[in-house]
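WARN no homologs supplied; continuing
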Amino acid sequence: MSRLHRSLAAAATAAALTAVLHAAPPVFWTVSTQTDFLKGTVDGLAIDAAGRLRLGPALEPFADPKEPFVWSLAEQNGAWLAGTGNDGKVLRFDPDGAMSVAFDAAELGVHAILDDGRGGFYAATGPDGRVHHVAAGGAPTVAFDPEDRYIWALARAADGTLYVGTGENGVIYRVRPGAPAEPFYRTRAANVISLAIDADGHVYAGTSTPGRLFRIDPAGRAFVVLDSPHQEVRGLRFGQDGALYAAALTPAQGDDNGSTAEPVATVTAQVSGVTVGQSAVAGSDATASAESRRTGRGAIYRVRGATAELLWETGSETPYDVLPSPDGATLVVATGGNGRLYEIDLRQSPATVALVGRLDARQITQAARGASGDVVLAGSNPGRLFRLKAGAAATGTFESEVRDAGSSARWGSIRWRAAGAGSVQIATRSGNTSRPDDTWSDWSPPYGASDGSPITSPSARYIQWRAALAGTGDGPALTSVTVAYLPRNLRPVVSELTVLPPGVVFQRPFSSSDAEIAGFDGTAAATEPDVQGQDAPQAPPGRRMYRKGLQTIQWRADDPNGDRLVYAVSYRREGDTTWHALRSGLTDPILVWDTTSVPDGRYVVRVTAADTAANAPADALEGTRESDGFDIDNSAPVITVAPAGRAGDVVSLTVRDAQSGVHRVEYALGGERWQVIYPVDGLSDSREEAFTIALPSAADRARLIIRATDVLQNVATRGDIK
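OK structure emitted
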């Protein structure tokens, strides 16, 4: 397609949207950062630290153990040994992937495998933990059988001494050649799940519950190098510079993984397209949010001497293993929850993190580098072995997260930016369920114009896009994708409507004058729309005041599309059916009504919220809400005094209010204090009440002042009582 044709297509799309939208702007969903891309699912692609989607390392299936879990991995003479569960087997895989059973234990799981240096291997099992020795060409024997339930980790010193990490009492045992086994150190943790030995003979031990890293000298004296905030410290590996790397993790709730929780026989199905939150480089604050509890969280540390340095912390992944590169430049990090493989570049300061692949398994429980330089990865749920080869894959795909438009939407155009040699193909699909299923549309044909192609997927609530990359060498890099759409206009909702007590008003925000009342005769500050048409944040009301005859009405309204709302208020007298306009064109959710302009009575008000400011008249919608009935009474009570009796020292009177009822009656004698009097029947509950006042003498009638107040605080007084 020529540049002219592409320009015309883009203009046609924009015109079509404009014709539909009129005043309503489209929504633009853009994916352009590493955090954005991590919310999707990769296959054969990598997401680098700069937020680019590109061809990832070549990752291929190596072998299928046909077991739900692969707990441990070790290379021996060019073949690979895999410790599995739940049948407790050690499987041997030749370089071409051919499988044979090297050892079949009575226990359920083989959690650690260690080359014995003589052509055989050790296998650590649990429950009913034992260390089995399978000698080259010999029958298996039990090398160590402690009372501990689990054996999680093995390490061998240069002199052949075997160190054994156990659970559930967190004891490290030392098994010397030709000598009985003995406790080496009691960690006071629940489990010792990882062991490593440095060149000076110090034993490093990672534990669970709590997640700590110990450094223990040959004499058995321990020092806690790391007291992590996580449940487990595992995956201890030394780099070429002598630094020790460790993975710390807090497993996801209910996750069936490679942690020290006892395994069960159920195989958990693979989860694809799970939304993944942001991963943070050291220095940011990672919190155990609800999302991290669902997906797990963890960190990678570098240890030099007695100092642990945080390299990477993630609130969305559980790192199970870490593997330094031979040159010390990078770390491969195997994670669980989504079967993702990350790479940390130590040459950058601070270190940068890139997603380099994803396995067809929920957890990557271990990573190991063979003599050929290839990295073999052990997956669980289901159990799989994969090989990470040098060089990039030739092709790969990416599926974005599912975008929720909030309602059935009209799709506009899709555009993308890419660089480098190779092809980038973008397609879309849509549906009305939050997860794609067989009710969704098929993937569209690839779109041709990267600067804007009309989306051909049918109108629906949800949309997803897919990118297919192909090339050689570094290949192409996809840097951003933008989808434009218009959600169907939804009706505004007036969720609250409050009629305040009569006379209660509020000072206008940011005003120093009591005369400026919020919501009265347009004195409230106008709400200017922001660039997206949303209402600006409403300022809180000012000081509360009292103004007789005024009635404050407040409401709360929301628009599901985020459109700016305009309000109208109308009223009717109770019993009438005709609504009368009170105010229109309001932008603030408050109105003060001067009720002296209408007769006393019982009234109802109605608030109408309309999105006409953001939609064409034919598309605009309204939402309404009516108040409960309330009284308007601006007339004072009427005081009627009966003629004086023969004695003259008793005054009889009636007080009547036509609307709201008699609230309080008082009297005073010529400047003395007001005294409350009560109805003859003892209860002030009607619009007309009778009262009597006993005076000291008949002469006091001339000094008598009577004051009556109705329920709505209208006051009447009467003197000159004869």
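The chain is about 5% helix and 50% strand.
OK
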